[in-house]
Amino acid sequence: MTKHIWRWPYPVFGLALALALLFWSAQSSRSENFVFYLPAAHRLVPVELIEGARYLPLIQVLNMVGKVSGLQEKKNSLKVWFGKAQLELRLDEMRIRLDKAWLDLQAPARLVNGQWMVPVDFLTSVLPRLTPERIEYQEGTNRIFIGDTRPNSYTVRLDQLANGSRLTIQFTDKVSVHTAARNGKWILFLGERPVEPLEQLHRFQNPYLSELRFDDQDGIPKLVLTPTMDGLNFYPSLAEGGKVLLADVLKPPPTSPPPPLAMEKPSAPAAPAAVETPTVAEETPEAQPGPPLPAVVLDAAHGGPETGAQARDGVLEKDLVAQYVARVRLALLATKKYRIVLTRLGDNNPTPEQRETLANLARPVVFLTFHAGNLGSSAPRVVVYSYRFSAGTPPALNDEAPSFIPWRLAQQAHLAQSRQLAQMLQQQFTQAGSILAGETAEVPLRALRSINAPAVAIEVGSLSPELDSAPVNNPGFQQRFAAVVVQALDQFLGGKS
């Protein structure tokens, strides 16, 4: 059955696609991340849940505290040379050999999608014996602090006010807070410095606030505050040099009384009290007069069992490009010019059809898909691709039915704009100086074929078994990369946004 893209003459078809997307989302599983906090950076490692136990990829964990110097893999065993130590794992055995000693694990070693996995208690039973670095890990959490990493912490108090409640959060060191509203919750971003909460979740018996939850699954510490009802006003502020956060949650002021019935022309009903919303751009902006913000779709390639390329230090393409998407998303939201649509959340792997349908439903002004691979020994390097039909010149569209376009030809109407976008990105990367930008190219990339908007693929490298990922895994480089993308999009759209 041939798939088609519809130019939305009838709302029923759009509704059907939206329902299909809801179904796909319900079928997708979203994995957790484990955050490794280092003195100068943080790294995200996906957590696999296997038969009720949490697992981490062994090679990635080891490379957080040192460097793997050699591997010897057999059908049911693995030997790893790490510094002066030698580790030996045997498939499905609940122990690991360190030099001449055998150490017990709480769950057996596993082999998943070509990766050797160890249970999370490896962090306490084995890892401290392999490094002189200070390791701080609270069992049951999804974060670990390595080396001279000094996390912030906080205590929480909630007091009653005459028309609301006051939340007081006392930090051990100063923070820089910005706020956002999403899905009926308030989010307090605490900057990039690591935070170790004394309690992950605070539940309140309060008429205005139900809970306060700490979250850093994307490596960015934040507090998620849940009100008990809609329509409350939220007023956060910092005090004592940034060490105290005060957040007042108040009832909205009463509306004006209705006009007298004797008036000849009744006035319009009074508007409901406005809900105070934080001054941070969101994926779904607050309703306001005028057209909505233009959408930019960001697509992180691979996911789930499809890991993509892998570096010598164990970093996987699927995880690396997710980091780039997160950086670009935040940089675009900071401009307050765009709303952002993501095709992949967490470590799932939507099909190409699911990704392109989600993208086309958003009617984006730009579609960007992110990849990482072997681009040679010079790194960091970036290459931008636009689409080329594999058979050369694409077949002509049917002029008699321009509103009904075959799905596989959706990109045809945007080829010239896609090439222009690729060139602008390449020029901006070149001008950035610290980024090696290759010439743009046209390739028959499946991820671009059915996108009904200007669309390009951005590949970073090198990511290969012969090289470590440090140049492309550097937070400073990723931040410069995100800034370049924003500049190129602003130039491409020419102020239309």
Itemize the secondary structure elements and their pairings.
Blueprint: E1 4-6, H1 11-27, E2 32-37, E3 42-50, E4 53-57, H2 58-65, E5 68-73, E6 77-82, E7 85-90, E8 95-98, E9 101-104, E10 110-112, E11 115-119, H3 122-125, E12 135-137, E13 143-146, E14 154-161, E15 164-171, E16 178-182, E17 185-189, E18 201-203, E19 209-215, E20 222-227, E21 233-239, E22 244-250, E23 295-300, H4 317-335, E24 339-342, H5 352-361, E25 366-372, E26 381-387, E27 404-406, H6 415-431, E28 436-437, E29 441-443, H7 446-449, E30 455-461, H8 475-493
Helix pairs in contact: 1-5, 4-8, 6-8
**CA-based shape:** globular
Query: How many helices in DSSP terms?
Result: 8
CA-to-CA gap between the ends?
37 Å
pLDDT averaged residue by residue: 82
Q: Tell how many strands the DSSP assignment holds.
A: 30
**What are the low-pLDDT stretches, counting only 5+ consecutive residues below 50?**
1-30, 261-289, 398-404
Give the helix level as a range of percent.
Answer: 10-25%
Assign the CATH architecture of the largest domain: 3-Layer(aba) Sandwich
- How would you name the CATH homologous superfamily of the largest domain? Zn-dependent exopeptidases
The proportion of residues in beta strands is: 25-35%
Which structural class best describes the helix and strand composition? alpha+beta
Strand order across the largest sheet: 10-11-4-3-2-13-12
